[in-house]
Amino acid sequence: MHSSRTLKTKTYVVLFLMVSVGTIGNVALDKGMKGAGTVDLSSRAAIARGLVQILTNREIWLGIALMLAFMICHMLVLSWADFSFVMPFSAVSYALVPLAGYFWLGETVHPARWAGIALIVLGVLLVSRTPPRTTLPHTGEAPSVLH
């Protein structure tokens, strides 16, 4: 059995990894899809050409691999922490995506988006000050010692 402190540290490490690989994976998918070009759905031949463009793009495969790593981290952390803790914490990616878009993809991020992102980060900071797990594993009962 893990101590509460070890579980909390492990939870935060995997949450950080989850948010990081998810963000980088999404950026890789975006860059790959933009490199593959617009997918034309007007005919079977156009769809086939689009699939070849997608399936032969290294950035898309990198994005898929990173998104798979994201899903593994997500499942792990959900086994250690409450859903109501994990999902708001995963919103950190909403702050990282525009940064990645700005620096790696050359996108312009409007000041109103930055203000919204600041509010999201503030919310994540508030959530991070609460215990990651408020229920005992497999019982659904509130623990008296984990708070």
Describe, in plain words, how this protein is organized in 3D.
The protein is mainly α and 147 residues long. The longest helix has 33 residues, at 4-36. Helix 1 (4-36) runs antiparallel to helix 3 (58-80), helix 1 runs parallel beside helix 5 (92-105) and helix 4 (83-90) runs antiparallel to helix 6. The mean pLDDT is 86. The radius of gyration is 19 Å and the shape is globular. It contains six helices and no strands. It has one domain (4-128).
Write the layout of secondary structure elements.
Blueprint: H1 4-36, H2 44-55, H3 58-80, H4 83-90, H5 92-105, H6 111-128
Helix pairs in contact: 1-3, 1-5, 4-6, 5-6
Sketch the topology as an H/E string, one letter per element. HHHHHH
Q: Which structural class is indicated by helix and strand composition?
A: mainly alpha
Uncertain spans, ≥5 residues at pLDDT below 50? Answer: none
The helix fraction, in percent, is over 70%
State Rg.
19 Å
- Extended strand count: 0
How far apart the termini lie comes to 18 Å
Summed over residues and divided by their number, the pLDDT gives a mean of: 86
What is the number of helical segments per DSSP (H or I, 4+ residues)?
A: 6
Number of domains: 1
Strand content: under 5%
The major beta sheet can be summarized as: none
Mass-distribution shape: globular
